[in-house]
Amino acid sequence: MKRAWFFTGLVGLIAAPAFAEVVLYDGQSVAGIVYAKGRTTELAAGMLSRDLRSLTGQTPRISTDIKTCPQVCVIIGDYDSAPIKHLTQNSDIDPGRLKGEWERYGRVAVKRDGKTYLLIYGSDRRGTVYGVTDLSRELGVSPWEWWADLTPRRVTRLTVADEARLSKTPSVKYRGIFLNDEDWGLKPWAEKTYEPEVGNIGPKTYARVYELMWRLKANTLWPAMHSVTTPFYGIKDNPKVADDYAIIIGTSHAEPMMRNNLREWDEHSEGPFNFKVNRTKILDYWRSRLKETAADETIYTVGLRGIHDGPMQGAETLEARKDVLQTVIGLQRDLLKTTLKKPLTDIPQTYVLYHELQEAYDAGLKLPDDVTLMWADDNYGYIRRLSDADERQRSGGAGVYYHLSYWGRPHDYLWLGTTHPNLIHAEMSKAYALDARRAWIVNVGDIKPIEYLSEYFLDLAFDADGFVQTPRDHLKGWMTEQFGAETADEITSIMMGYYDFAFTRKPEYMGFSETEPVTPVTESDFVKPDGEKAQARIAAYADLTRRAEAVYAALPEDRKAAFFELVLYPVRGAANLNARVLNLALAALYARQGRASANLYADKARAAHQALVADTAAYNGLEKGKWRDMMDMAPRRLPVFLEPVYPQWSPSAQTGCVAAVSGGWWNDENALTFVTGQPRTRVIELFGRQAVAQNWTLKTDNGAIRISATAGALDATNGYEQRLTVSYNGGAGSGPIDIACGGKTIRIHTKLLPAPPTSDFIENDRRVIIPLASQTGKGWQKLDGLGHSGAVLRSNLALPSLTTPQGHPLIYRFSTYSAVGGKLSIVALPVHPLNPKTGVKIAVQLDDGPVQLMDFATLGRSDQWRANVLTNTAVATLPLKMLGAGVHALKLWPLDPGVVLDQAEIRLDGADKYYGIVE
């Protein structure tokens, strides 16, 4: 049955005879396939034949001759191909209306001589292919049927509605993927498992990639290009297969003029890759590739970098690099024009504004109007800049190069696909709104395990109407397609939790180390000051894992491998890496506190690592070894991935029981505090000093408090510790909590602070947290599902940059009962200015104080930027010398377009410092 959520890009019906349905399989006979002569249509017919065979168990007859058709036949060809012309002559159907269109298709059923023909005709080769892939998907074939082992299920009948359809032009002209950092997945898998006869990523592997691109309606590939991989043009069949599949080949910023300098330029024989001293040889080097690719469908990247993704040789200053680039681009365009013998306006060209290439452009480099400006993100999902009003008038338009995988500083994320779908939605909707619509290329690493995120990005590129759908709804539709409606809600919830946790901090960053240079693992900030953040994170990941395992257990066998690849391995992998890091850090903290449980936490860390190793081996063994060498749990062997030493501590010399509240040591002079009228839960940790069983009991006379257990034992079954949840219901009450354990009574006092004046937000634990999306107004757009507080505010993209606030502010009223100093922090997402004419500023005012500016901009790869992208925050702070008790008002105005605000924190003196801002 057709699922409307993924059938994007259709404009409606076209005139045609009406039938109730077209029966492609009636339980006994399957439709035949006729294709117009041509390698691309032949491959499309073969793909459709395999899909029909998977669905029905019968192999369709494939032919180029209409006369061979059985009772029902699918006809595949371009709008002006012979079989399409033959079957539409003397009818109201006009395939010729697609002439000159880009990647569109029509589909219509006709009857002739007692037979039924389902015609699929395209405006070009890819349009025809998309008509075929849409048909397959409508019949129940997932785009990931091979790449994620979602083998189509057998059916007893196959039909499609008879309504004629005509697709619309894709929203983004060039939509594609970049195979990158392939050293730990795609290349070893191709070399050893899938294509050992080539021993590298070769034509067989690329053919699989191209078919996936067909099914995802992508048309452009930047091939794999690391030193471990044979250059794309180094294997003669690679470009031929690309042409067979009508795939457009382009290259990254580091590979101008279709050249992989890392493997193709030999400095020993050709000299330095320095244009200032070796111009002739470099021009000849480019010219030879242009001759080789003259007949291919390509997008040429202009510009110049170093041998690989490094600085340009021979130009030490920004001004020098700009001057070299200005000369180089002019000469490159001369080569394109004279070698390809076409007008430059007919040769697609891009300038990828990445690192120093953007710096040179912003410094005044002049680019020809027909060259596409390919804006890049900062490698962490935040687009560095987009076209201003003048640049949006350029004939070459603009595009985006975006990362879902990255190798580099401050830290790689090459292992799991963790970019939040809501961030993709926010950034790419911004790009589309500001006319970056010519080309979208996404860095997908090894393809696996970034399957869903890749498809989401490409779906938005193909049909921008998808932006009206929430990322959660898109993910649910995708999970419904893969695993069925009965489990889709639960899987969607699991995966959104997985993305939320990674937004707080990606699993690859849990070592709190960095790269370039590589620094050692350091103690996790989640453990500071008391371990409660770490405990909560471990528990939350464990709950996600439990839920994912429950879904896995209930799935039919034919979907378990796919679920393991798409959901269970990523969820459990992230959970286990977090558990290993955090349990080891907790072990050290608890050893310092003299807890008997310290060694047990080290054991938990070891078990988490062993589980991660086992899951990775299981992944590589799926489907009888189909994915052997695809999954590597330690790309680049960075410190965070390596198995640590698991210390063991001697028993404490002290005996007895101890109670800790939020990690603090409590006696009769301390109290567990609550604020009157504010329900709240706390944790008491009761633990033994030594590995000796001890019974305990608890009582309290405080009627406003409930405790999760009132008696138990500290023994080997619970690690000689008990975590007790203390729940305050908001009512009046007082009285201590007495715990009898180890021959003594431990008393924890409870204290109710007076209720502050009523307001929307109230001080608790000496801080006030304000989710800023709780208000909205003119000049702001609410983006649900993004940020650390569940929603964010984005200042309108059309807002002019201001130096002083204008209009009505957003007003947030909050109450405090303490009269102390502190600081006000506004937490934003680390977005960049839309263009050099704008910034990332807001104005704030507290009560009747001065209006003050807050600026979230960072420079280059500064230390502040590095900290921002690792936490997905940008924090601006103002000191508060003294904030009196009572009701206060925080006012906010936007000063620049595109600023994304998450939450405010008023942190008073004495508040504990935790990881991040959110409690």
Automatic annotation (TrEMBL):
Residue ranges constituting the Gylcosyl hydrolase 115 C-terminal domain according to the UniProt record: 773-913
The keyword Signal appears for this protein: yes
Membrane as UniProt keyword: no
The protein's name in its UniProt record: Glycosyl hydrolase 115 family protein
Keyword tags: Hydrolase, Signal
Stored InterPro entries: GH115, GH115_C, GH115_sf, Hex-like_dom2
GO molecular function, one term: hydrolase activity
Domain of life assignment: Bacteria
Signal peptide coordinates: 1-20
SUPFAM superfamilies referenced in this protein's UniProt entry, alphabetically: beta-N-acetylhexosaminidase-like domain
